[in-house]
Amino acid sequence: MSSISSIPVVALVGRPNVGKSALFNRLIGDDTAIVSEEAGTTRDRHFARCEWQGRAFWLVDTGGLVEDSDLPMDVAIKRQVQQAIAEADLMLLTLDAKAGLHPSDARIVDMLRNSRKPWLIVANKVDDPKSTDYFEFFNLGAGDVVPVSAANGKNSGDLLDQIIEKLPEHAEEPGPEVLRVAVIGRPNVGKSSFINRLLGEDRLVVSDVAGTTRDSIDTPFTYHQRPFIFVDTAGLRRQSKIDDGVEFYSSLRTRRAIERSDICILMIDAVEGLHNQDLKIATMAWDSGRGMIIVVNKWDLKEKDDKTAAKFEKECVEKAPYLKWVPFLFTSAITGQRVTKVLDLLLEVEAERNKRITTSEVNDALQELLARRQPPQAAGHEVKLNFATQVETAPPAIVVLGNHPALVQEHYIRYLHNGFRERWGFTGNPLRVLMRQKG
Ligand code: GDP
């Protein structure tokens, strides 16, 4: 499982055509930083997860924000930098050493100075390390200037070193006994209203503490003596405040929240139903091994009878079969209907997540499933499955040993998966069923 600590965000800012995207591609390129291929954290057009000297960070290319915008250039740049300041932990002001200093560069420096966050000046297009073109950037009085060439890669390792040096320190994360919950979903489905409603409950003891990065604030609380944390509730509040034209920041925020959680509450809008975007977020959480609950909010606005909830759920499962294993809760953050039920549901999903089935039970189940339906034989080979055991919890994984694991067909693995699910549920959690060579 990936680490639950928050990974800092590094944003490239600067005027158009200074080479931000080229630098982005260079820094995430194979010859420099390693880009993680882990499910749910692979690269996007605008951000990628990098690792350098054992430290991970998200690199964000804010270029599109200026280049694709209809706003006057200065306004667009200002917005780009403001967004970066709100969202990132370190800014890389990228300047063009060939073009030299531009009046708006100094204005960006002023904004960075007022941000109280760290930044670095990067002089791009210094293709020849002996060139002195970039010396004039020292006149900005904004500290050291790191010369690089996105085109040929010169000095990109030095730049990565400097990035790591400037990154804020990791804060201590609370211990494993805390259940971390992320509320995720599209804007306006009611995430902040839901959390506010929930935290307003007398039953919960709430306190705000600073989270892992200076700007991300989590909300810890206890329920039935159990410590919980809602991760990045500050991000949620901020999301509704800032105009959310900047898709890549909200999508990055979602990924970070998923990474830091054990269980995700995916919230969808009862009136709008399950969108493709909702499914994308759900799949991101599920594939990265998180537990999941689907909260269908704004239920008060839905015209309904006694069959509406079941029908809603069925339609979702038709779109994504794995949702069959995910609990649904129909709520209204406005009236408060069923909102607190989510807490018991979280505890149930957590129990399912940590459930361990004994090896003899798993084996009995395998034998029964084999007796009912044998694995299809592959041409020239008799495919035999001998033994099964649960090798992991949180999320659960079951390994099945056989003589030709690679020849077991996908539909048969699905049959086993469903058989195990019917017995033990593991409700709200992805279950991996893996075929392995018998020793
Ligand atoms: P977020 O962007 O997901 O955090 O959504 P907000 O919590 O900001 O809610 C977006 C809008 O939907 C606000 O105007 C809320 O008052 C409204 N809203 C949220 N939950 C409900 C609900 O359960 N029922 C109704 N009718 N409105 C809701």
UniProtKB/TrEMBL annotation:
A Gene Ontology molecular function term of the record: ribosome binding
Keywords, ordered alphabetically: GTP-binding, Hydrolase, Nucleotide-binding, Repeat, Ribosome biogenesis
SUPFAM superfamilies, A to Z: P-loop containing nucleoside triphosphate hydrolases
Binding site for GTP 2: 185-192, 232-236, 297-300
Boundaries of every EngA-type G domain copy: 8-171, 179-354
Listed CDD domains: EngA1 (cd01894), EngA2 (cd01895)
Any Gene Ontology biological process: ribosome biogenesis
Annotated residues for binding of GTP 1: 14-21, 61-65, 124-127
Domain of life where this protein originates: Bacteria
Sequence similarity: Belongs to the TRAFAC class TrmE-Era-EngA-EngB-Septin-like GTPase superfamily. EngA (Der) GTPase family.
Assembly with partners or alone: Associates with the 50S ribosomal subunit.
Entry function: GTPase that plays an essential role in the late steps of ribosome biogenesis.
Descriptive protein name: GTPase Der
Gene name for this UniProt entry: der
